[in-house]
Write a structure and sequence with these properties.
Blueprint (H helix, E strand, L loop, with lengths): L1 H21 L2 E18 L8 E25 L2 E12 L3 E7 L12 E8 L4 E8 L4
Antiparallel strand pairs: 1-2, 2-3, 2-4, 2-5, 5-6
Length: 135
């Protein structure tokens, strides 16, 4: 009987540990910036005129989540950068990556991008809108 009670108490502590892990599925973005760091004149087969392609630097901080997550950048509901992978331990950490969409219409001065963080299962953990800066 004593062994049964000990096993039930041990099982209760295991269940508490599982609850703690489930509660860590929160992510927070902060200090997010997107800046155009390079413009390259180009042309393609579908257009007679040249346009500029842009390389953007996305940087910021992310925290509050424990596990693997991914950062996606969208513009007008189109994915312009997908699956920048991060492994987080709950602490806030900086991140930085570049992306270069090859669309001619992305040459306006103030572009709104959505930065979205999602987990391995594709669930969105958080997202924010950022206005890109041009040099």
């Amino acid at each position: 009987m004593r062994k049964l009670i000990f096993a039930l108490v041990a099982l209760a502590f295991v269940a508490c540990d599982v609850d703690v892990e489930v509660g860590t599925k929160r992510a927070k973005l902060s200090d997010i910036t997107i800046e155009c760091i390079k413009e390259t004149p180009t042309s393609n087969n579908t257009s007679d005129h040249e346009f500029d392609t842009h390389t953007y630097l996305c940087s910021g901080k992310i925290g509050g989540f424990r596990g693997d997550c991914y950062i996606r950048v969208l513009h007008d509901n189109f994915i312009v950068h997908n699956n920048h992978h991060l492994t987080l331990s709950g602490e806030t950490m900086p991140f930085e990556f570049t992306f270069a969409p090859e669309w001619g219409y992305l040459d306006r001065e103030n572009l709104n991008f959505i930065v979205e963080v999602f987990d391995d299962e594709g669930d969105t953990l958080c997202k924010t809108t950022v206005v890109a800066r041009h040099n």
